[in-house]
Design a protein that fits this description.
alpha/beta; Rossmann fold; 2 domains; 6-stranded mixed sheet; 12 strands; 25% strand; globular
């Protein structure tokens, strides 16, 4: 599959799939969000490709301010030359959730201001089994820019938990939030082995979630998934404080940020992280690209 956009933004990190979208598309400009140097997996070869392609490289710590400035300048130039609204694509495949939040916040704000048309790309990974050992949760807090705010702090919490291989995060989030209700969202792809392993990895949470609240979403149908997340949140708003914990596939995390932006202060998106070099696994692309077109919020 070959895709075409005026500008691509992607993560320059260690995952093999980090370059898949960038090398399977046609772009006038490519912006790489560079993570600190590491000898892990494909980092060196990914960096070499970015340099050879003459990508604009931004250190991840400088994403909000630098990215906005570069996007404004680049899209203005394209707009003036072509007389049309530029197209921007953010490849979320290898972005950590904090950098994803910062990147999408800037991108959605500019798209809402009619500076460009915005889409997300996602390169699903080939199947791999989850790590034999899990790591403790190191950080659990709202994502900056997507914290939400409630005028009714006395309302109970409803937790929407995306499921993945991070089993300690899903159960840890429920224990930390102590919600009155829990809804889980299970990713469904084209390889049944993923779903079987996710079910097994999250065995501790099932006793806390009634059968009717164990929902599924389709990784390859992000538009439908986005609508489902928004509809679920909308049904809970007003009678509870909605907190989303988006573990699992990165496209799900991106769609949760879209839901929070559209529903604003009524929803909060939280980030839970585990980090240890002993369990950092590579992600190889399965050869497909999933696309989602963002619908701007009317002014």
């Amino acid at each position: 599959m070959t895709i075409s956009f005026d500008i691509l933004i992607y993560a320059l990190g260690y995952e093999t799939r980090a370059q898949f979208v960038a090398t399977n598309g046609i772009f006038q400009k490519t912006i790489a969000l560079k993570y600190p140097s590491t000898e892990l997996h494909s980092y060196d070869s990914n960096l070499t490709l970015a340099i050879e392609r003459e990508d604009t490289i931004i250190e991840v710590g400088f994403v909000p301010q630098t990215l906005e400035s570069i996007l404004r300048e680049a899209t203005s130039s394209i707009d003036s030359a072509s007389g049309r609204l530029p197209t921007v694509c953010v490849d979320v495949s290898s972005l950590d959730r904090r950098t994803m939040a910062a990147t999408l916040k800037v991108s959605m704000e500019l798209a809402d201001a009619a500076k460009f048309e915005l889409s997300f790309a996602y390169s699903p990974a080939k199947f791999r089994r989850p790590p034999a050992e899990s790591e403790p949760v190191l950080n659990f807090a709202p994502l900056p820019g997507f914290e939400g705010w409630t005028a009714n702090p006395e309302l109970p919490v409803s937790a929407i938990v995306g499921l993945g291989y991070e089993q300690d995060i899903s159960i840890g989030a429920v224990e930390f939030l102590d919600p009155s209700g829990v809804w889980t969202l299970m990713p469904v792809g084209r390889d049944d082995r993923f779903q079987k392993e996710v079910i097994k990895a999250n065995s501790d949470i099932w006793s806390l979630v009634p059968e009717e609240r164990r929902l599924h979403y389709h990784v390859f149908d992000p538009s439908r998934t986005s609508a489902s997340i928004i509809n679920l949140c909308t049904g809970l708003i007003g009678r509870s404080r909605v907190v989303i914990v988006p573990t699992g596939p990165k496209i799900f995390g991106a769609l949760c940020l879209v839901a929070q932006r559209k529903l604003s202060n009524d929803v909060s998106v939280w980030r839970a992280s585990q980090h240890s070099s002993s369990v950092i696994a590579d992600a190889e692309p399965d050869g497909e690209i999933v696309l989602f077109k963002y619908s701007p919020i009317p002014k």
